[in-house]
Fold these 2 entries.
Entry 1:
Amino acid sequence: MTWLITGGAGYIGAHVVRALTEAGERAVVYDDLSTGIAERVPDGVPLVVGSTLDGERVARALKDHSVTGVVHLAAKKQVGESVDLPLHYYRENVEGLRVLLQAVTAAAVPSFVFSSSAAVYGMPSAAREGALVTEETPCVPMSPYGETKLAGEWLVRATGRAHGLSTASLRYFNVAGAAAPELADTGVFNLIPMVFEKLTEGVPPRVFGDDYPTPDGTCVRDYIHVADLAEAHVAAARRLAAAPGTDLTLNIGRGEGVSVREMIDRINEVTGHTLAPAVTPRRPGDPPRVVASADRIAAELAWKAKYDVHDMITSAWEGWVRLHPEARRG
Ligand code: WQD
């Protein structure tokens, strides 16, 4: 199989490329390099620089490389930014997907894996009751970003049914860590890098609210190591290739809740920093608890996470100090 990985020069995409090639699959990266980094693409893996909005370029890449499956990760992914720039998010994430699918169906490529998000659930009702979020939990996205991912799932499924395309939508929970320091996330948009940044500056990390209805009052999330997430893509890709007509929607999480306060304590342990966090007001729109049920992916793909929160923090920290050597204590 030859897989075209859109967004393959991004943080998660580069991990998917590595996992697929290590599993013996051929990979071709398609990335507009707006946030992707060309150096993340390994030697021997072709890089086509282009936007998924450019249908002709996509069509040529599918043909030139005899692509037999697509893993689509290229997207805009900042929740706050999506509130200010909804037109941009719908264009990049929904129109970009539509143009890509048009080329995929025209070329009769049989398999399509779509990068979705727990953001499709919004403020999940299950979370309020302390239960795990299953794929049956109603989807009520709370941001234009989450809306584009849910609309994307609908478009992928409808196209799959109409054109005989095997599809999987993978709903990522909170992705963290790195398989190697040079593959680490360079963005500072999520809890772990935001805490690292504060520690590096020598100021207390922030807890956005400690009056939530959770055991320690801080928000609870389901953190998943990016290397485990990448392996889930390999399992999904192989299933689609082996079973035409597949239509999967799967959570990718560990089923274990970790609070913001616990996470900051663990980060201090790993990094040797000792700054106590500062509690600030709640960040608008944060659900108290979002923890996946990972039962369906275990049953469907026999996939299970191997790494824990300690592995995520340790590997993310190695990537961070590579770029910020001053962060190392002492
Ligand atoms: C985690 C928790 C914060 C920073 C978002 C998107 C989701 C997905 C992943 C996709 C929250 C708290 C954070 C800080 C804090 N994106 N926090 N202090 O919001 O669960 O999910 O990223 O592509 O769609 O919504 O992740 O890492 O921003 O926050 O207290 O300095 O940490 O309030 O409770 P979130 P996050």
Entry 2:
Amino acid sequence: MRIIVLTGAGVSAESGLGTFRDKAGTGIWAKFDPMKLATPEAFAADPAYVHAFYNARRRNLIEATPNAAHLALARLEEGLSARGAELLLVTQNIDDLHERAGSKRVLHMHGELLKARCARCGAVADWCADLGVETPCPACASEGEMRPHVVWFGEMPLGMDRIEAGLMSADLFVAIGTSGSVYPAAGFVFEARAAGIRTCEINLEPSDNAHLFDERRYGPASEAVPAWVA
Ligand code: BV8
């Protein structure tokens, strides 16, 4: 038995981390222009501004704690592996709350806020401090080349081969806390359906592609996910 779960910002909302788009229009991208913060061009144009945005989110994340949804998914992974079954947890989130809740196999397709990457040598380092335009690379010592290890718009998401393989061979695909508005993640449900895989959406409200899911459960993730895992 293999389950592939895709999580989005909604799974970390009750841990106090912002979501990006919501009906109330209070999401991060309602306050900040993603084209000025989450693209390589934006970083090249004003690295200090982009660093400040991610430094603030990094400081926020360090204060945050996993919620019942993260803990339930860690229990699910443990229960499945005890039965020789498998959970592939793919997250669009750049926080480490799944890991802190105990999940062992987490695939961060949009990168990780607590890692930094050198644009010159490609080295990726754990990073819980602020990044600045002069931050030296711990590997090649070049200055001003460190960037958040995050996938911006127009950049290739990470782990796509593993995700595509998982989508071909899973028994169930579950999307949790995602608006289904960013590709290629938003397209995974189409691929799961095409492969004849059962699909389930767990969200606060119907997502953009809710109609594509065989099963739909709504409510706050901290309630709906433990209820589904139980
Ligand atoms: C790429 C990291 C190609 C940075 C992010 C096809 C069609 C149209 C457009 C495209 C396409 N293909 C590519 C594109 C362009 C683009 C795209 O999809 N644009 C959108 C806006 C139309 N995609 C890309 O650029 C991607 N790259 O395709 O590269 C390529 C090919 C070859 C070579 C090179 C390149 C890269 C996309 C990744 C961008 N990075 N994040 C950062 O975090 O700062 S995206 C951003 O949105 C977020 O980070 C998040 O990861 C992502 C998805 O958002 P969600 O997680 O869904 O969050 P959202 O707020 O939207 O929704 C939250 C949901 O939770 C809501 O439904 C809400 O109701 C619910 N909720 C709220 N509270 C709760 C809750 N649910 C439960 N409980 C609660 N308490």
